[in-house]
Amino acid sequence: MNNWTARLEATEAPLGAARGECQPSDPVQFVLVPLVYCLVLCVGLPGNLVALLAFLQSGQVRKAIRIYLINLTLADILFNLTLPLWIPYYLAGGHWALSDATCRLAGAAYYIATYSAIAFMTLISFNRYCTVRVARLDLALNRRHGAVAACVMVWLLFLGCAVPSLAAQQTWAGSQGTKCFEQLAWHRNLAYAMVGFFAVSFLVVLGAYASIMRLLSATASQGSHRRLARAMVLGMLLVFVVCVAPYHLTLAPWVAGQMQTPGCSPPSTLDILHTLSVALLSLNSCIDPLIYCFSIKALVHPGTSLQCLGPVVRI
């Protein structure tokens, strides 16, 4: 990756070819981003592994919400596992020292994990909204088999989206080393589709939180399960606003700018903002375990819980 690329290059422009052979130094890209990735790896991977063990300790997974949480945790773990491959790449100034097959897997896994996590957060928020309704919605998505089917569809959808990047060569020789996931041009329409997917997901999460707040304000009884549902959806909403939204707000204009700007030039303000948004996007995977702690309080059953604070409340 060079100065103008982000991690989800499966959706972005042929930057190496468009910019020529020069590569100006970019401390944001090659210093800040790997430092953030190191932090995310050190905090996110242990946190998500602990959360996954807690979810699975009950033996049989029966509730839809637990299925969604397990899959969100798996997506975060997959994301964390790609970081040891990308950190050296950034620290080396954008030189890929591994094989082309490893490059393909690393890029595709990053893409699959990021957007699967967004989908699972959306499903979790909708599920929590359904649980606080006075007349609960008995939808297939809120039952065990429906949740399993939804999660399988999410994984298959984004795996299918990643197939083109897995099938084509993704490394090429640049002036300052071998580049990874920068060679092929992808239509800007796919970047717009990513922004559209984020917008729909964000509106669902925002709508779920607003509906829960309206229901709580109109209901005299505010049981613990309703307060915890509100806390969980609020956590998801904050992740969208702080971590996910900045990337998608800069993605479309950034891609358009990369495709229109010829030659080699220093990073623009939009380039820097986009790179910073990539760093923020990665924080998602280490914030999710904190949401579990503050909104669930205890997982699976007494004696096998993440008792971060407060009394035991089961999901």
Automatic annotation (TrEMBL):
Membrane-spanning parts: 34-56, 68-87, 107-126, 147-170, 190-216, 228-249
GO terms under biological process: phospholipase C-activating G protein-coupled receptor signaling pathway; positive regulation of Rho protein signal transduction
Topology term for the membrane: Multi-pass membrane protein
Classification via PANTHER family: G-PROTEIN COUPLED RECEPTOR (PTHR24232), TRANSMEMBRANE PROTEIN LOC653160 (PTHR24232:SF91)
Similarity field: Belongs to the G-protein coupled receptor 1 family.
Pfam families, sorted: 7tm_1
Location, primary (coarse class): membrane
UniProt name for this protein: G-protein coupled receptors family 1 profile domain-containing protein
Single Gene Ontology MF annotation: G protein-coupled receptor activity
Lineage, top ranks: Eukaryota, Metazoa, Chordata, Craniata, Vertebrata
Keywords, sorted A to Z: G-protein coupled receptor, Glycoprotein, Membrane, Receptor, Transducer, Transmembrane, Transmembrane helix
Protein localization: Membrane
Domain of life: Eukaryota
Any one cellular-component term (Gene Ontology): plasma membrane
G-protein coupled receptors family 1 profile domain span: 47-292
Matching Gene3D superfamilies: Rhodopsin 7-helix transmembrane proteins (1.20.1070.10)
